User: Fold these one by one.
Assistant:
Number 1:
Amino acid sequence: MTARIPWPGRLVYVLPYLGIGGTEYHVLHLVRAIAWREPPRVVAPDGPLRPEFVAAGARMHLFDDLTGNWWVGMRTFRRALGEALAEGSGSAAPVAGTRASSIVHVHGAAELLWLAYRQARRQKAPARFLFTSHGYFGPGARTSYRLAAWILRRLRVPVIAVSQEEARRLQKAGLPPGQLRVVHNGVPDPLQQPAPAWPFGDGRPRVLFVGRLAEQKGVRQLLEAFEQVSPAAPGARLVIVGAGPLEAELRERIRRSESLRTRVELAGPVPGAARLMAHADVVCMPSLDEALSLVGIEALACGRALVASRAGGTGELIEDGTSGVLVPPGDVTALARALERVLADPGLRERLGEGARRRYETAFTVEAMAAKTAAIYAGSESRPGDGRAWR
């Protein structure tokens, strides 16, 4: 990583979960990429990424997961946020104006923004507010967008969308364009770290999928497509890295298919999966929907040929035919034909990989994301008032 981005202010990050998803890694990348005058506070339920946040210098304030007992979770959230806002003030119940204003940057859950805003008002804690939308998916997505837009419009806080497509969806749900800024996701350069040895079979060419094993990620469609690819690329091997609710179903599907059984490995979660991409010949991202995939950006950074569906913000990530190949979401036949084409042509894979690396360097570095976010912090902090929208 190059020089860290300086930020002199007080930051409180609020997260609805602390698992191993894109929202959590987005915030972790910011914590690592910014040179803080004082440690950032992170308010979140406990989860597997907590040790990494602590190692990066964040001070953790934990609350109970709101998906369990809502009332218990809400009380513990108020307590955790109150502690984060009061920390360093010398008072458990600070009075407005007695200490520097904090920026409270809420990610992913607009209902937490509402609770945070009310808690800061109750506590009379000087604070500005900012929200980043990472996308809503599944059957309830439309309702979630409408609820988020209502809360954001009511509070009139600045909103960051991680892609132009995400901004469009928020506007469609009723959020005024003047509240929105787009800051594309960025990731640290995985080539700055040594790649671990490839721990899987020796078959070539190698196709790699990294992601949650869930409906949204299109992994069922990937298996169907790879069955069609097999006769055209008999040596190709597919490795699926990740865990999720579809794991047992996918394992049974592979076991029962003669064409998949010896050529597909369901590897489960693998530490350092981004660095493993350097060993893959093709990275496949067949998602049915995405805001802006960190896995896709990591594949660009590794200079890998990327075959992906044009879902959500993915069309902003990949230039079709230059830094990857795009297919319609859910189109198994188109996905199979695209994989066959790229697997059969080493020269094409090399050109796509070179284009992918250029795309990463010009648009999706973590330094670019951190610099744009810090500039937004500066604009938000300099506004008078109680956390209202852009200047």
Number 2:
Amino acid sequence: METVEQLVSFNHIQVQLSGGAPWGFTLKGGLEHGEPLIITKIEDDGKAELSRKLRVGDELININGSALYGSRQEALILIKGSYRILKITVRSQIMKGSPAFLSEGFGGKGRL
């Protein structure tokens, strides 16, 4: 039987959203709640969706070059302080065997 580590791979994805708020995603969690900061919703036709890089379930780990320490309040301050451009890094989970896993080149398969 395979362990979770054998079935899941994590990928850090950098995303730049332009044009100012609203950015088109919703966050949940944070140190205050004993959970990681997770994207729980991507708005239809919003900037986050149009980037085609963010997914529900992605963990927010960096905003505008500032590493996050897990506080939702910290993340909201950094996001609201972004005037025209928001640069974020997320940790995205990819299930082995999924089309995304194969297209990312994991496991020796996919694009080169």
Number 3:
Amino acid sequence: MFKPWRKLEDLRNECDTYAESFHKVKLHLVEALQYHERLEELQKAFETARQLVQQCLDDDLQKQQSQDDPENPIGVQNIEAGEAMQDFKDLGDKVIREIDVPEIIAKLNTDQKRVFDKVICSKYPV
């Protein structure tokens, strides 16, 4: 039992004997022990959490380094790039028909036609 003291009377804690003093503070010692055990559990939990976070960071760093390829500096996966290129080629293969502007204008509804006319008149005044 640790108890700060300067005089022997401090150890007895205003009791007649040292045994009485010990039994008087024994409950506080049990509480202190339980507190210490909880504190140790928390420290272990924090250490475990720190290790898990570090492991996740290391895994992410390793994943990032494994994806770094000098021939692929922007990190695009080849599958996605291949699909994008195929889409681009397919678009070029389609026959682009000539756009018939008067036909498009004729298909405008009343409100669209009004806005179109207003834009055209402001751009090209009569």
Number 4:
Amino acid sequence: MTERDSRDDPSPRERPGAAETEVERRRRRAEFLRDLAEARALRARVQPRRAKTARLRHAMRMRTFRW
């Protein structure tokens, strides 16, 4: 079974009587964050102008953020 096939398995919340462990939750979260980063990178390649303005906006927000 590949990593992608494991997504088709029912999650611990859908299985009755199975408690989700911290390790499972962190693994799923890490996979989600990897997919999210991949999607953002793809979007930046497909829409470079929009990505550039988003980068500039983010930089401005970070410059004006007060700790």
